[in-house]
Amino acid sequence: MMNFEQSERSLAWMERVRAFMDAHIIPAIPTYHAQAAAIDRWTEIPPVFEELKARAKAEGLWNFFMPPSDHDDEYFTSPGLTNLEYAPIAELMGRVSFASEVFNCMAPDTGNFEVLHRYGTPAQKERFMLPLRDGVTRSAFLMTEPAVASSDARNIQTAIRRDGDHYVINGRKWWSSGAGHPKCDFFVLMGKTDPDAAAYHQQSMILVPRDMPGVTLVRHLPVFGYDHAPHGHFEVLLEDVRVPAENMLLGEGRGFEIAQGRLGPGRIHHTMRNIATMEVALEKMCRRLLTRRTFGKTIAEHSVWEERIARARCEIEMARLLCLKAAHMMDTVGNKAARAEIAMIKIAAPKMAQQIVDDAIQAHGGAGVTDDFGLAELWANTRIVRLTDGPDEVHERQLARMELDKYRAELAA
Amino acid sequence: MMNFEQSERSLAWMERVRAFMDAHIIPAIPTYHAQAAAIDRWTEIPPVFEELKARAKAEGLWNFFMPPSDHDDEYFTSPGLTNLEYAPIAELMGRVSFASEVFNCMAPDTGNFEVLHRYGTPAQKERFMLPLRDGVTRSAFLMTEPAVASSDARNIQTAIRRDGDHYVINGRKWWSSGAGHPKCDFFVLMGKTDPDAAAYHQQSMILVPRDMPGVTLVRHLPVFGYDHAPHGHFEVLLEDVRVPAENMLLGEGRGFEIAQGRLGPGRIHHTMRNIATMEVALEKMCRRLLTRRTFGKTIAEHSVWEERIARARCEIEMARLLCLKAAHMMDTVGNKAARAEIAMIKIAAPKMAQQIVDDAIQAHGGAGVTDDFGLAELWANTRIVRLTDGPDEVHERQLARMELDKYRAELAA
Amino acid sequence: MMNFEQSERSLAWMERVRAFMDAHIIPAIPTYHAQAAAIDRWTEIPPVFEELKARAKAEGLWNFFMPPSDHDDEYFTSPGLTNLEYAPIAELMGRVSFASEVFNCMAPDTGNFEVLHRYGTPAQKERFMLPLRDGVTRSAFLMTEPAVASSDARNIQTAIRRDGDHYVINGRKWWSSGAGHPKCDFFVLMGKTDPDAAAYHQQSMILVPRDMPGVTLVRHLPVFGYDHAPHGHFEVLLEDVRVPAENMLLGEGRGFEIAQGRLGPGRIHHTMRNIATMEVALEKMCRRLLTRRTFGKTIAEHSVWEERIARARCEIEMARLLCLKAAHMMDTVGNKAARAEIAMIKIAAPKMAQQIVDDAIQAHGGAGVTDDFGLAELWANTRIVRLTDGPDEVHERQLARMELDKYRAELAA
Amino acid sequence: MMNFEQSERSLAWMERVRAFMDAHIIPAIPTYHAQAAAIDRWTEIPPVFEELKARAKAEGLWNFFMPPSDHDDEYFTSPGLTNLEYAPIAELMGRVSFASEVFNCMAPDTGNFEVLHRYGTPAQKERFMLPLRDGVTRSAFLMTEPAVASSDARNIQTAIRRDGDHYVINGRKWWSSGAGHPKCDFFVLMGKTDPDAAAYHQQSMILVPRDMPGVTLVRHLPVFGYDHAPHGHFEVLLEDVRVPAENMLLGEGRGFEIAQGRLGPGRIHHTMRNIATMEVALEKMCRRLLTRRTFGKTIAEHSVWEERIARARCEIEMARLLCLKAAHMMDTVGNKAARAEIAMIKIAAPKMAQQIVDDAIQAHGGAGVTDDFGLAELWANTRIVRLTDGPDEVHERQLARMELDKYRAELAA
Q1: Confidence (pTM)
Q2: Which of A45, A375, B399, C142 could form a disulfide with A310 if both were Cys (CB 3.0 to 4.6 A apart)?
Q3: In this structure, are D284 and D183 located in the same domain?
């Protein structure tokens, strides 16, 4: 029966995460930034970050992003939080830029981990998944390519050619997030094994150790002037990269199938972080407006801001509910049946977040575009969400077609 | 624990209402309009409507809008549907303009009925509530005034002056919806008993039989060219209208207190009808786009429409969830604690509905602004929702202030 | 050299029109409405209107919409106002719904008159144009059809078949504005003479006297509940309507060619009336906001309205300048070279007007949707402009393609 | 008489600037960026830039931003381009980020130069204006302060206290653009000389050599991750900075008076650069859409992009016309009478530009947020325009009040 309160299990985990963040992460933010400013952020990690991570692991606040799974085995047992139960925790972590990683719950490792857990062979799990599970390594996901509109994934051109007991990979990827992280160990790469197969069976996914000969990190890609080190986004060149045939995931031609399953939970996590962003921005906006005065009153008393605050609050509440419903459907009827809802949150939340952060910037005047309140970087991070995992237009197309399909048959009759 | 499925009870009522609508109401729509075209709509009711109403009453599909109540007595026993359980039924009924009234679940009678059920004396209930309960009479709610900005309800000027064992009422009201209905029996009127009292204790609510000497229906108010007969919206002049002192509701100066309680469920009903409107408009839009062709393809294949359909679907889902959450909060923590959520749906849903109906009109070309598809009238009905029960700006102000209040104390410290 | 002041000639005409409106039209508005309320508006004309028209004609304020023309002949000599000079006068007249017609400068007669002036044979001019010139008759333009998406004009299906020295017309038109006017004398009709010709040479235009056998006014089409009598918009059925072959305009297959030329000036006139609408709405909004108080101040002091007023003023100024520039280009380089600018004003102004009138309605509260301030009817009139002469989407498509064409050749190279 | 063609003089200068840009500046862009990448951008200037500047000066393409002036003297003779004539040249230069400075036509030096030209004493001109005129030095304008909402300029707190034949300045400024440029020679600083004077007579402007003891450049302020070196935006601390009394501009208490005059032409320049930004973004958007394919066609053929391109083209044309009209009014009736139009372009153009650049980013997918197409930096530069010289809200307030003032007196009567 309809209910809007979280489960006991979720509330208990939320409480633990919140307590950890209040006690350890939030107080460490200044230290984190000070240490980051003093090191080469592309090759070193701020020591306080490693301490936080070790502490979270020791307290068992670790890898809890994994939904209940029938793929549990000796390598990993899911902690059992459903997508619906995990979602509010993702929001909680989303309030601090580096918090997810403290708990080993960060993209793209979560998606790659789930792929390995679900589809990996024992050998693949041992080699790639275990170090990821333990937070010893990180990984990247190589899909988008600079030469084509990757929003139509069938456009992807990177070639994966069988050669004896190896595959030889040639291509150029970009927006390979995390590929340059000092701990990055391997890539999950999507590429074309058979250009002559049916449209959705040409692509495969394969595991590529980062340090293979032929792999070149061409450059990192800035996002509105921010570098996002040490994670970053990279352009990666693959020239005659030879990986063992056993690195193929699931089988040739099954790349789309894996991609489908991989994206659902990630969309929930992304959206809940979007929602955290909106909450952070709205809070900062309110605080600023209450403490600055123009024309004889606080700016908060100018009704043009009432309209913006009210809209922000409405949108946050609506987006959160929709995301939770999508998570609930994934848990109860499966990712495929939840396809429309997953598309909806991908469409709706980033646009809302972009507007709310923009309003928060406006409320801060010049301070809004500097790094003083974190809003400019938040804006940049928010803006890319309308492009990652497919631009708005692709999801709108998909959702509209599902809507139209409700009437097509009847009208054709 | 969080759940997005309706209760068994709600599903059962939904099923009954849906079956009744499919079997009786929807097939009767052409007859209803044909009969309406042939009568004086201000004084007569289409016979088919009375038949539908009698049938619904006979089947017990009657007055089920009332939430569980500790005010039950010999005059009325609540059927026990919570606000959350009733909400999807309100949406169902909202798909046909006259359906709510078939089930005796139409505004403003629902609100007036609830006021009487909660605050009425036995005598008031016998005289006013029982015929309303039985669908024999209808009623109106007289609050807004043409001479002042009623969005600030303290502006209301109509005088209610005590004179012996009567009250004498003088003032001019408008947007008195239903005041001209052939069955309208009485008004719940808000007016000022004590201009010298504290701001929120000047106003009272009193019961005024429509046929009292001194009551004049000045004119009906069109809404974008529509008259909304037989219900309609009226300008009502009250000149030295003398009503017995026992018609006062709850006590002098308690008008705001009653208004507060009265509005909550009504907002849920209104919003769920908005959502029905959006669904109807989106369905019509999709059907039209699939059946018209320009430039070598159906209009549905032009991606500018994909964006609009996708946005519509996202907004409908989000608005519905927020409304259901507001209803759930009213049921569980009370109307006062749900104040923010109630404001949110009042702000968010009508704007969305306005846009979606406007898009549907655009999709129909010239046909959209005629009466052929009902979209123009739907638009008019939708547009007024941004003004009824207070314009957007008043609710945005209220919601923004609640948001700002979260930080005020801390910042003042 | 760039200059933003109107010519002496335009200023002099503006002054005459303004003086006439101030002296005669504006004072007559109440009489006009009172008389209209007392007659059958579909068959009778308010007497005051005929008086105003006679007076305007006597004063020589008549037919001045016609730009300088090399088609001048014994039937008509253009008064010589360029499109640029006429535009501000169109705005002036646009402030009162019936003013254009007082000066014999109303659509669709202006467009039909220009077609006849430019392409008509002497016989066609004598029969159709002269009474129009003298304000004795009115006319309609029959293009749009209910059965197809007329936004792609190639879809038009009405058949014009040669039969000896006649043409036989069969089809169904709608949105035939003015077809039901008591003085309507003839239609300019677009239809298909040769379904096998190249796409843009299938259609022709032909003159059809209204009272021909086989012409049926099926019904009038309401616009958001308004009937727009006596002008109105009609659905017209043509069944085996036989007109003499000499009624063909310009020649078979030249319908698109005529339509192209016909639309330019009309778009300027429509847009300038849109601008008048925006000015009227903004003025009413400001006046209302200054005279109502909420929460201790006039509503005008709530900054949410400052934003709307400011946006309205910016948009009005920008739309007017763009329209004047389009008019200037039509005058100097021709309608074809001004194609982009004409599309731009058709796209931009109606959307702006819709928003500004909507804001004005919101500013008036419930009064905004009634007939008390004329805003609801203004809204309805504004909304249809986004559909008449092709919906927004068609003009956006056309304009975007012109923009893209700037780069196509180079990129293809 | 109204005309939309530029004057011969303007066209001739446009042609010279365009030719210079085509021949020298545009080919030098890669060299400029390569050199910039190899130096300390805060202390060194790319050599190619100095070469371009020397060449432009030698060709007499220098300081032509100054409108005709009765302040001409032995120090400077205005080249005589009106604001209207200069505007399209500002747009031309605005297409390349560093082009204005090549021609010595860059903010804030243009404004400071004009202040000195108009109000400077001979001594002030010799010391400060001549090197600026010759491109030997640069300058900054110190107004905004971090501690107050500077959008209400009366809030400005920096103290300018008379002490014998000196003024002593104490305060903290920020957004002091150009203060850190290696050639920055002096500041025009606004501060409070008399806190007890009437509200608009408390502030004064004074000339402060940058290298004065007590002046500290605290830090540079990033804009969405970009540093804007070597120009940059700075936080500047002034501690007991003693400047000679003769550095006062115009006289104590006349700061607002100078500010008023200073801002007009700058707004034209800024807006024309906004328009250049929109044109650049639209061109890049079109090119990208034409060269990428999804779902079987170029993205340009997806109609969702037609709508965006069309809107962009409409807005660019409208904004440009409004800006030219504002410039024309400044030239013909003066900055004060053009106050409304100047506010309008400040309100309208930056919002449009923000949307168009955002759309262009979306059209480029991931490439849009990197530095590959310059769009991300363009977005950042565009976003701050909604905050510089007062946020949108302040100008909307001012414009709305002018609009409301049209009716106030009449309604009060």
Answers
A1: 0.96
A2: B399
A3: no
